[in-house]
């Protein structure tokens, strides 16, 4: 019997280290964090320090008493202190002349809300580390509350749908764009449906962090909090890209470039229909969400065109 | 007695003394955010850095919360660190302050005492320090500019000691000391190196190293948490004797020592005692001298270590006295008295049922004057003689 040749995905070429995580970890069923963490560690290698916070990733990254889920060097701090703690670690190692890779791994609640000030400060000061924000559009670990990256219309436990209120009333904060406006050496968006793109960006971040902050914003659907079938996580990622809800781009010192273009973007409804938190939206509300997607994308296109001219 | 007399004498402010103290200890990472009345510390350290006298990573942070997180993380990574703050800055870093002590990060920080909470009083007062007394930090309070410099140096020996490994906060009164220029002896750097050298002979503390499967800040729960808390408290207890030893060695080295946890002034045959802390002690010593000349057997105890509270030392020196008056530059909300007084009352079983009097003075830059202290001593003396007394006196409000 002839041996069937199995073609490995090109993404395997980017792996430089063994998976440092235990075989089973304590994430919700279908959560993309497990894949994101294993992937990040395999691409960046073992010689890193992870800095994290109380969040969805904490149960796995923290360990319990002397028990641990992984073999990485790890510093856990409070949500206010991620970028600043990473600064402290990198500055000390710079002082003793040792080149290291510090990787912050936090959710959007930390990056966009309560921990934003130190992140902004670190970007302005060109601090030398990687900051990965996994954006699941809310405070999922505490039970699905809205954050400032929660999109318009989303039903969450603090923006519930009732007779007097219909989900979140304001638009999401565009954190990757805000970070890019600090003009650090590297800002990128990534998601799990486009793994090679993600891997390239991780490696670029590792290189660019030698000049200053490298920020990667990772779109991370939350099956539990959004109402997504647990086998549909990656499909939701893909559809977020195909609808231009979450375009894939990178920016170096404020010079933007799309890393993936969608020839014919799908309407936002093809994305929202996969997700229960949007199911109450009226056609008018969906139109409003579509307009926001279009406007954000037009702005991004404009910025990338400026980057091409420069 | 190796280093006595070496170095130079300069007329500098309390803030500059703090900066000199830090610079001489060669910190690896310094992160600090300006706030009145501490700002000059940040400026002076930046000047040292610019002039090549301070070879440290200087982080010009965007807030105090980041300052504390930066120095705590750098300390856990293995560095020697320094930061400085005051009042609202201390409040803004509160979560990180608690984390630093829980992580046993050997941070050295000066806190330039200023009033809070509320009523934006840009003025002296020790309430900021009191607001963090249960934070698990070692807290030291000092009297003058020389003591600021010396205490910062001693603080490194205490914080980084293998048996201690706790953050240390050196407090001095804002305005009264921060901007007061005094002649200060600045030791030679090599002598400070030599004084700190014993730290290098100790076992290396656990550090965060890339690539090594070692984390800082696990979910310590149940017995795990209890054990860490127990060890933290045990380290606090050890810090008392350790501080006395460091102070004594400092004296042998530089010719100046301060008594360790407490300084006793004219206590040998004192029948009544004045207990206070910080810059008020200078005035208090002068008044005690004057009262002694009048034949009154009064002594002063200067509280240098507020956390851990020097209960054994205080018991030893206060037992058998006839009355004790305490001046606090802050209040104890919910007890309506001064915090040091409140803590002293907890020692009543040890020192005996003598009159204890609380005097609140010096809030928000109210001067603790010679007449105020005379009044404290006279009132305490009257109580010792058996006259009726009120427990708490807000001195400036009763004039």
Describe what this molecule looks like in 3D.
The complex is a heterodimer of chains A (310) and B (399). Chain A contains eleven helices and eight strands. By secondary structure, chain A is α/β, with parallel strands linked by helices. Chain A has a single domain (24-309), classed as Thiamin diphosphate (ThDP)-binding fold, Pyr/PP domains (Rossmann fold). Chain A has an eight-stranded mixed beta sheet with strand order 2-1-3-4-6-5-7-8, with helices on both faces. In chain A, helix 2 links the parallel strand 1 and strand 2 (73-76). In chain A, helix 1 (33-44) packs across helix 7 (195-208) and helix 3 runs parallel beside helix 5. Chain A is globular and about 60 Å long. With 399 residues, chain B is an alpha/beta fold. Chain B folds into two domains: 8-254, 3-Layer(aba) Sandwich (Rossmann fold), CATH 3.40.50.970; 262-398, 3-Layer(aba) Sandwich (Rossmann fold). Helices cover 40% and strands 18% of the residues of chain B. Chain B contains 14 helices and 16 strands. In chain B, the strands form three sheets. In chain B, strands 3-2-4-5-7-6-13 form a seven-stranded mixed beta sheet, sandwiched between helices. In chain B, helix 3 (64-77) runs parallel beside helix 5 and helix 10 (280-293) crosses helix 14 (370-384). Chain B is globular, with a radius of gyration of 21 Å. In chain B, 55% of the residues are buried. At the A-B interface, strand 1, helix 2, strand 2, helix 3 and helix 5 of A face helix 3, helix 5, strand 9 and helix 9 of B.
